[in-house]
């Protein structure tokens, strides 16, 4: 027993050096104590979202750092193409759920670690599930998933009657992202610092596609093209050379094969032009970028969970295309942020007799502020709930499709009308308030 304790003490000596002594970067209010290490080892719960390139790194980093009550959530299974960087997986694991294999590997390897895997989409877990964590760290490759978890942590915030934030309801979110040789890491303290939605304009339309998606569950014409490019071309090797994005013969071959694959998955829209765009625009996943960003994120989790050190404020970008470059700045909160501001979102309507419901849906999808996927709109007209449009449920889509071509006036909507807008990018509906420009003239 004594021997074990001795071993344990040596094992965490480096953490003790940081947690049991003050230092120049300590938080001013931090009181060094052995209890903090005790807390990290025995009760601190951290959720890792994503078990891919970043997720494997994060899980390894946090487990080695002393965190034991780790949960990891991911809806994907392991693909051959993951193995070069998702190092917790082996060839024999192909086809198995990433979260489960990663958890099993780390539990077997790191003494005392108890990783709990969740093989499902993040949307399948409730508020109660997310509430149990001290910190949540994301290694995601999808913007909608980031927006969803951001909406979730913001929705967990509690305010008292005077509007003062209850600090115990705050679950900090550490978010990492990589694209080729570029990456970023950020710390989000919901209700306090800028959230994902505050800085939504930072995310350009996605041009790269996760390999697991294109191999197993293609949904877009781009996924089919990408599959032919990275899997079928090397296998069939039709011209005996590497694929050249400027060679018309090559592109024609990719086009034909991509159309075949698209037909197989009932996907429309594979054109020669799109093939050109996708073939020339691939950004591969780079293992070293993932390692750097995950290490930064894990360090931030440690700073936040231990309360010992001042966390990143609040956005770091990393780039090692031409040498190594890092830059930190403070992303600012948006006063009227759709998620964290508690202010209904005003939509100005020039002429409600001309603006059709489909124009409003289009605006919710296209405007940089909303960037929704398939918004569903409901409201209250004369005291009764009315579904204006919903595309996600077939039967309701059919029933409400006719509304799309009606003007806002024809639908009985008034100036100041509040619409509840649901979308896959948010766990809770957003309130959109209509502001008619016409209303001045009507009143005269
Ligand atoms: Zn915000």
UniProtKB/TrEMBL annotation:
One of its GO terms (cellular component) is nucleus. Its EC number is 6.2.1.64. Residues 349-437 form the E2 binding domain. It is an enzyme of class 6 (ligase). The active site is at residue 212. Pathway: Protein modification; protein neddylation. Keywords: ATP-binding, Ligase, Nucleotide-binding, Ubl conjugation pathway. Belongs to the ubiquitin-activating E1 family. UBA3 subfamily. Catalytic subunit of the dimeric E1 enzyme, which activates NEDD8. This is NEDD8-activating enzyme E1 catalytic subunit.
